[in-house]
Specification:
179 residues; mainly beta; 4-stranded antiparallel β-sheet; elongated; Lipase domain-containing protein
């Protein structure tokens, strides 16, 4: 028990002068948080852990408010949260597709994969692998919208401004659009 609580002191110390804010997202459950149902922050929707915890306070009549956040396994513990939103399109006469879509975020310091996001994201790599071997006609998926919500600012970064097709077994790169 002592080991788990000792980390709280390290979190608090890091929160004092860190550029990362240890933002906690107001959510009903940890599962909802993991599913991305709590982003972006809305009024009274986010709080802070550590030294700056008193920056945001829910209304006085609000009770039992739960906030969730992810921390790193080692220093720096604070991590930034991002949510990727993909809207898939349907083409008439196109069969329903089942398979696996893989994504990799690419930042100013290289590919990010499963590591914590600590730098600016400027590209997203999307690969499409159908659940079965394509037959004579190549299977495709259609992406209508690809956007990222930055948890710290609730700013939306668009990576796609028009429909794109990704054929089975292929990869497409999408670059952040500047407006």
């Amino acid at each position: 028990v002592l080991c788990r609580h000792r980390r709280a002191t390290q979190y608090f110390i890091e929160s004092i002068n860190s550029a990362c804010t240890f933002r906690g997202y107001r959510c009903k459950s940890y599962e909802d948080f993991r599913q991305g149902d709590c982003m972006p922050c809305k009024e009274w929707g986010c709080g802070y852990m550590g030294f700056h915890a008193d920056r945001v306070k829910p209304p006085a009549e609000t009770t039992n408010v739960k906030y969730f956040l992810k921390t790193g396994h080692s220093t720096p513990f604070c991590s930034h949260n991002y949510q990727i939103n993909i809207l898939f399109g349907i083409v008439s006469a196109s069969p329903m597709e089942k398979g696996k879509v893989q994504m990799n975020l690419i930042g100013s310091r290289g590919q990010l994969g499963e590591i914590a996001l600590t730098n600016k994201v400027n590209k997203v790599r999307v690969s499409w692998y159908p659940g079965f071997k394509p037959t004579t006609s190549q299977r495709s998926i259609y992406i209508v919208k690809l956007a990222m919500v930055k948890g710290e600012t609730s700013k939306i970064v668009n990576f796609l401004t028009h429909n794109e097709t990704i054929e089975a077994g292929h990869t497409q790169y999408f670059t952040a659009k500047r407006f």
